[in-house]
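Posted in: Protein Modeling Q&A

I'm a second-year student putting together a small comparison for a lab meeting, and my supervisor asked me to include a predicted structure for Thiamine pyrophosphate enzyme TPP-binding domain-containing protein. I've never done this before, so apologies if this is the wrong subforum. The sequence is pasted below exactly as I got it from our records. If anyone can share the structure token output, I'd also love a short note on what stands out.
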Amino acid sequence: MSTDMNAHAEIDRSFERYFRQNRLPHLWCPGCGNGTALKCIAEAIEGTEGFTQDNTVIVSGIGCSSRGSGYMDFDTVHTAHGRAIPFATGIKLARPELNVIVITGDGDCTAIGGNHFLHGCRRNVDLTVILFNNNIYGMTGGQSSPTTPPGKMTATAPYGTIDRPLDACRIAEAAGATYVARSTAFHVKHLTQMIAGGLKNHGFALIEAMVQCPTAYGRKNKMGSPAAMLTWMKDSAVMKAAWDKLPPEKRTPEKFPIGLLYECAGEEYGMANVEILRRAGGL
Ligand code: SF4
Ligand code: MG
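Accepted answer (user: helix_wrangler)
Welcome! Here is the predicted structure, written out as tokens:
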């Protein structure tokens, strides 16, 4: 066996058992960051006590990233555009013993699903929501999404976006989520850790995973190869501790903090609901 083959044999590929091999290859473009983030989810599940393929449900909406649920070998639900959080809430309330994870995109979660996102946060439902943010509507052809940064070219803003972008993490914090974190497809170990933290949180957890879309976003904005987009993420992301020390003038729109951004205690919705059922004589 050659040295290369030996090296290959030593790579831990235990994550593969979390994927439906008969659904592969996936439909994502070469160099898309979605696959990286999906692997981080699988590794976070593998490393978190109490999470198995039989007790974990993965729910997604519509969009490139939301196709991820179909590749994962769990009980999965691919739902309507923007509606993953309500479906997941129903599953969690009906079967509180299950772990429920949501995969969503920036368009799915913060545009058509924005209202559901707010109310999932304020209810503090025990969900782990992983928002794949590629700053664009990828699947439908590169339209501006609520997270497209100012000045960026899109199919609906061919001279540059003038809308100010939403910061999903700050919205989640303000709306009542109890765990809010961000990482990127470049920082794979860090992203896995951030997701694992969300899985352990008993309440609404949002993990924003910045992922590169070389096709619908990078190409229009001349961001280069997928590797160049990963370098852009590396250079743009600032660990929270360092971000907190940055003077305001250095917090430019191109830069963003990563890490555990916010965490608090709060009554979980399902527990409160059990109490209501008990009072109503249903338990
Ligand atoms: Fe990924 Fe963008 Fe291609 Fe969608 S359009 S699969 S987000 S690279
Ligand atoms: Mg998107």
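A couple of things worth pointing out for your meeting: The mean pLDDT is 95. The chain has one domain: 33-238+253-280.
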